[in-house]
């Protein structure tokens, strides 16, 4: 997985007055837990642009002003209901030998036969919840839809990997090709062979 570094300042005071002052200064109050201690810190709102406003998933290196570096992933984020400004972010510390649970984006590959014949690709999942070591997790989970005909479905079992465990039931559908008004009849693959030649016109007497 890709990693981002966020330069931050550790917070000693975590009361409402202190939090308000941090936000008024254009910074976001944050917390990281999951390790031996809980760490409160703050960073400029602009520092989270590439982490929050993207469909990609990243691990984060939180570089504190005291020299400490913490490896983490984003766990939860709160936005202002009117302005959409970031109010608070929760992170979870990650370790090389401990699996993490995370939702990874899903992306299709290939060109579905059913879609070529007028069907429509519908998604049930845009993200897939998995568990695994951070070092083994991909940036995105890909699924080949080349062979999907109209009515066919792609299941989570079709994108299984030894690198992680998928935390959805095996019968969970990721996407399927549904019929539409523009659908045409799908013919079975024709056997290879020569096409019979047309009969020549009879010669005149």
From TrEMBL:
Chain spans, region Disordered: 183-205
One Gene Ontology cellular component: cytosolic large ribosomal subunit
GO molecular function: 5S rRNA binding; structural constituent of ribosome
Entry-linked CDD domains: Ribosomal_L25_TL5_CTC (cd00495)
Biased segments, Acidic residues type: 185-194
HAMAP family per the UniProt record, alphabetical: Ribosomal_bL25_CTC
Self-association and partners: Part of the 50S ribosomal subunit; part of the 5S rRNA/L5/L18/L25 subcomplex. Contacts the 5S rRNA. Binds to the 5S rRNA independently of L5 and L18.
Name of the molecule in the record: Large ribosomal subunit protein bL25
Species, as recorded: Aquimarina intermedia
